Amino acid sequence: GGGSGGRSRPPGAPRVSAAPPPPLLPGVMAASKPVEAPGGGGAAGLSRWQLALVLGAPVLLGAGAIYLWGRRAARRGKGANERKTPEGRASPGPGGEGGSGQPDGPGHEEMSPLGRAQAAKNKGNKYFKAGKYELAIQCYTEAIRLCPPEKNLDLSTFYQNRAAAYEQLQKWTEVAQDCTKAVELNPKYVKALFRRAKAHEKLDNKKECLEDVTAVCILEAFQNQQSMLLADKVLKLLGKEKAKEKYKNREPLMPSPQFIKSYFSSFTDDIISQPLLKGEKSDEDKDKEGEASEVKENSGYLRAKQYMEEENYDKIISECTKEIEAKGKYMAEALLLRATFYLLIGNASAAKPDLDQVISMEDANVKLRANALIKRGSMHMQQQQPVMSTQDFNMAADIDPQNADVYHHRGQLKILLDQIEEAVEDFDECIRLRPNSALAQAQKCFALYRQAYTGSNALTVQAAMKGFEDVIKKFPRCAEGYALYAQALTDQQQFGKADEMYDKCIDLEPDNATTYVHKGLLQLQWKQDLDKGLELISKAIEIDNKCDFAYETMGTIEVQRGNLDKAIEMFNKAINLAKSEMEMAHLYSLCDAAYAQTEVAKKYGLKPPTL
User: Fold this and answer.
1) Is 609 inside any structural domain?
2) Per-residue pLDDT tens over the stretch 512-533
3) In sequence order, which ranges of 345-478 are alpha helices (DSSP H)?
4) pLDDT tens digits for range 312-335
5) Among candidate residues 357, 381, 400, the one where a domain is terminated
6) How many domains does the chain have?
7) What is the pTM of this model?
C-alpha cells in the first residue's frame, strides 16, 4: 500500500518482520509483514501469524487474522500434544478427547449388545497396537455392527478407530468417510475432525481440510501445535494457488502519487528521478529558441520526465518506449525509467528484460547500472530468491562503490535475511558516504534495536532506544525516524510516547496513509479502542484509496470483531491492489481463513472469541 509510511518499498516487496516489523525502504520493504524466507517461514523460518504468537507482537500486526485470538492461549500452550490412536476409552465426551467412561458401568453389561461391541473394539485396539491393521478394521467393523444405534458417543469412537486403522493403510477416502460418520454422531469430536483434515490434505481437498482444521484450532483453544501448523500450511498453499491464477490475469494498476514519490525519494544517487536539467526543459521562452524544443519533441525520455514532474504517470511507459524504439540519446535512461514503472505497476516480468539490458550496457553511466542492479536485487528478494538478490547488490557495490543507495538498500535486504551485523555495516557505509542521511541512521537504529529485542538483552535495548532519541534530535524533519521509534516504543509497551511519535510523523507527512494505519493499530493495542482504530484507518483510505495495507488491517480488525463478511470484503479490496504475487498470496490466506471461520460457525456454531 502506501509504502511504509513514506518509507516506500518497491512495489510488492515483502514486508519485513521484527517485533512489529519496521517500515523499511524500497529497495526492500515496509511495515506490515515479514518476508517469507525461502524455506517458507518468516524471517526466522516462522510464518506471519506464528511470529505474532511467538513474539507477542501487537494484536493484528503482521499476523494471519485467523489465529490471532489464539495468541495468548498459544503462548501458554502445551506445545504439540500428540494424539494417541486409536481411542482406548469407550466414549469421547462431547468435547472430543475425554469420555464419559462406559455408560453402563463394567460388571453387569458383559453380554449386552454394547458390551459385545466394546469387547470387539478392545480386540481391535490390540491388533492395531500390534500393527495388524486389516484385522483391527474387521474388529472395529464388528463393533459398529453390534453397537446399539442410540449409543452415539460409543459408535463415533468405533468409526474414529476404524478411520485410524485405514489411515495406517493410507486409504484416505475411507478415513474421510469414517471420520464424517464419527463427526455426525459427535459434532465436536476433535480427534475425528483432525484425522479428517489430514485425509482431506492427502486427497488435495484444501478447502475442506481448512474448515476441519479451523474447527479443531478453535475447539482446542489454540493449544495444539500440530493442528496450527497444518492450518498454516493449507492457508499458504491455498493462497499461493489463488494468487498465481489471479496475478496472471490482473489489470496493471498505477499506485497513488504519494506512493510513487515516496518510492523515488528513497534513492539519492538516481539519475532518472532527478528533476529535468535547465537545458532539457522547454518552457515558453525556449520554445521560441527552437533548438531545445526540438530535442524535447524528438525525445520520448524527456517528455516522460516532463510527465513525471506533472505527476502524469500513466504516460511514462509509452514515452519511454518511443525513446527506446528510436534508439535515442537517452536509451539507457528510458529503459531504466520504463523498468521502474513496470515494477511500480506490479509487472516484474516486463521490468526484468529492461533492467537486464541496462545492467549489461558497459558504456552506460555507472549510476544507471547500479540503480538497475538495486531494483533487480529488490525484485529477486520479493520473488524469494535471496541468493540472486545478494549477487545483484554485491555487483552494484563493486561497480559503484561510492553509491550510498547501494548500501542503504542492501542494509535492508540484510535485515530481512536476519544478518543484522552486516546490515549495520552497510548502514554505516551509507552514513559515511552521506553523513546527512537521516533514513540510514534511523534504519541502523532499528536494526540494532531489533537485534537487542530478539536477543532479549535489556541493556542493548536501552542503548538502541537512546539511539532513536539521538536520531530524532539530530534529524527533527525525518518522519522515518519517528515512525521506527514509534514501533520500538510500541514493543516496549510505551504506548503514550509511541502515539506522540506517530503524531510527529503526521505533522511532517500529513498525506502519508501508512502512518495513520500504524497509529490506528496502536489504539487497539493500547486502549482496545476499536472505533478510534477504525476511524484512523478510514482516514488512511481517504488519503490514499490504493493503500492495500489499510484495507488488509481493516479486514483483520473486522475478523477480531466477528464481522467476517465485512472482513472478506476488505481483504478482497486489498487483493485487487496487491503489487506482487507474494503479497496477494498472503492476502488470500487471510481471506480464506476468514471464510473458513464463517463456514465453521454455520456448521458447528463455533466462533472464536471476539475483541
Assistant:
1) no
2) 999 999 999 999 899 988 889 9
3) 348-359, 366-382, 386-399, 404-416, 420-433, 438-454, 458-474
4) 999 999 999 999 999 999 999 999
5) 400
6) 2
7) 0.79
